[in-house]
Amino acid sequence: PATENDARSGNSVAAIRKSILDHIHFSQARLPVMATCNDWYVALAYTVRDRMFGHWMNVVQAIADPQRKIVGYLSAEFLMGPHLGNALINLGIHDNTRAAVAQLGLNLDDLLAQEEEPGLGNGGLGRLAACYMDSLATLGVPALGYGIRYEFGIFSQEIRDGRQVEKTDKWLRLGNPWEIHRPELSCTVNFGGRTEWFHDERGRLRIRWIPNRVIKGVPYDTPIPAFRKDFIGILRLWKSEAVESFDFQAFNVGDYYKAVDEKVVSETVSKVLYPNDEPEIGKTLRLAQQYFFVSCALQDMIRVHLIRGKALDTFHESFAVQLNDTHPAIAVAELMRLLVDEHDMDWCEAWTITRNVFSYTNHTLLSEALEKWPLPFFGHLLPRHLEIIYEINHRFLEEVRRHAPGDDGLASRLSIIDEGGQKSIRMAHLASVAGHRINGVAELHTKLLSRTVLRDFHAIYPDRFVNVTNGVTPRRWMVLSNPKLAGLLESAIGDRWICRFEEEIEKIAPLADDPAFRNHWREVKRGNKADLAGLIHERTGNTVDPDTLFDVQVKRIHEYKRQHLNVLHIVTLYNRIRRNPNLDITPRTFIFGGKAAPGYAMAKLIIKLINDVGAVVNRDPDVAGRLKVVFFPNFNVKNGQMIYPAAELSEQISTAGKEASGTGNMKFSMNGALTIGTLDGANVEIREAVGPENFFLFGLTVDQVNDLWGRGYNPRRYYEENAQLREAVDLLYSGHFSPDHQARFVPLLDTLLNHDPYMLLADYQAYIDCQDQIAAAYRDQEHWTRISILNVARMGRFSSDRSIREYCKDIWRIRQGV
Ligand code: 26Q
Hints:
By secondary structure, the protein is an alpha/beta fold. Among the domains are: 248 residues, Glycogen Phosphorylase B (Rossmann fold, 3-Layer(aba) Sandwich), CATH 3.40.50.2000; 290 residues, Rossmann fold. Helices cover 49% and strands 14% of the residues. The strands form 5 sheets. Strands 1, 2, 5, 6, 9, 10, 11, 12, 16 and 17 form a 10-stranded mixed beta sheet that branches. The chain has a 6-stranded parallel beta sheet with strand order 20-19-18-21-22-23, sandwiched between helices. Helix 30 packs across helix 31. The protein starts with a helix and ends in a 6-residue tail after the last helix. It binds ligand 26Q. Ligand 26Q binds next to helix 7. It is an enzyme of class 2 (transferase). Belongs to the glycogen phosphorylase family. It comes from Desulfococcus multivorans DSM 2059. Pfam families: Phosphorylase.
């Protein structure tokens, strides 16, 4: 048909080829013979983007339709990963594009490799937002993801001499073909200054904010394609710029350098993504970033609502706004300010709307990670918002006192303002007072949330609490990253599982009993391991054997995630081999990956530990290839797509109660890895789903952890009473792995022996025993493969499509399309 061959939108091989050549000429002004690999990548990206504009118009219509509720997903992070491969899959043009590119004498894989991934997030929270954008689009829910267009995303990691070296992430260096610049939708954002009373034209006393800085937010839109559906989601990211205000020019006549200075300061706001775990540094900029994108987002949503021809009192019928953790929680005060100050609405009416609009997702119970802003500092940057928060708090505490007269303890525990010591604003309280729903990200996490951090809120508002267990998108994490597995699944059960994962994927379960299918399954995994081995060689120089057990821990480096417990297992095996060089053990390749926050010294020392242990173990002739340890540098979405499909054992070994959910655990299982894990986060639900017999469980439960703290935890006792543990710890103390600096790991080891806040020593023996069982189980490949198939078959619940359906039903009150 003619439309198939249209060079702007057709999906035939000829149309795609023509479109690429057209873009080389009309968009890039390049001669094909002179075009670089990047030129071809950009031409292809434009070609693919063209094929989303038709879908985009459908979404614009949905957004303009006053009957349809729109999701505004507010997140300081969106860890999208590369767009090209995902778009080819979702648009259904992967094969034709590969052919078209081949006809031009190019290889699609080279063009895919050319894309710099937008790393606009730290880890789980940012990647969750990206999976949710995919599912929202695929389910046909009109959605705008609002965030910051950081000029520099998460740093890229190099490993030099076994240590992390951070490099700035210049992802925009060669331009970004996926985004549409929308200067006509710019917003202005104010900072600082003071507030004052005034009489409006109707003679009423009102408040206005007289800021001392104004900047401009300019949106850039990126389409997020649905899977095989003419729909997209819009990721709207804001860049900060200087305003070109007349006032400003008038007040600064001739002051050219001051004007340039203003421009630099204004552009700083969206300059760089903050790594987590660095609570103390650069605070002002972090708060300015949060307020900046939140204010732009709300102004934008109000604009959309008014375009629908509706009055502001129905704003909550147009938008459901999700706060991805407390990073955007200032939105509560900003919406109140916009409604009351700017749009002259009555406080109570504005509050009703605000309460109906917002809901809040909590992602952590770690007290050090709960956001708090010191009052004077907050008031200096956002004086009007401080007043509004006081008013919200005043009215809220009155309600609390009515609810529990005389209980001053309760009121002070619930207060948005923390009065103890340095007075500060508890952002989780602000979000909880305003949100009509508060959700945790796994069943266990939601339960602990309502018993610990938000206990008093749960006592007075139990109905606000809901659980929505995280999920991940099978499009990126299976179809795109594991084409071999996707092909095998398709040959067995067709392709409906891709967007009906919950209903369809379990259909492969019976095939676990089919020996021929198990053989195919093993061939797929073997192929993925060989591919990863090649990449490991290229990136690290290490040779790894694809016939060994691939034991993988990839995630941010943090003490609570206990990468060093994994290292204690490696050292234990190493000691066993040294004692008995002929020991018959299951050969393993230990693969680690993950970034440490630049200011987190202990996490950086763990990276050095992994590399130093690896250097000695990998070189020791006694080990004779039975153990290999590699640290895969710069773990990010792109690298993750190569790693998860090759994994056989997934390490999910956080101290019980510390990992809110985890999402890597789901990606591994969906790709046929078995899990060794604690009863933490979503591990609990994964184990229930795949069956306890198909999951390697070890370690203390949350209750046992609390109990042990209560009784008085003495880590040194475990060291003294366990010879195997003592031997491992002593070898690390001895400098065996750090001959150039004997005491290198003393800070880490002393922490373990004296405090051990994450109870590694308490869990050590259970972990080792469990690993020994795994080593034995791996020797029965038929049985292992059976379990692997059953793991995939029973992962239906962990598609982000299921999560988004639950958000729509229990939180956003959206029915259509889903
Ligand atoms: C806060 C203040 C200042 C600077 C940075 C931050 C900051 C930034 C990012 C704090 C935390 C984060 C990220 C948190 C995160 O990724 N949490 C993870 O969220 C996942 C999705 O719900 C869960 O699966 C993980 O368990 C949780 O650790």
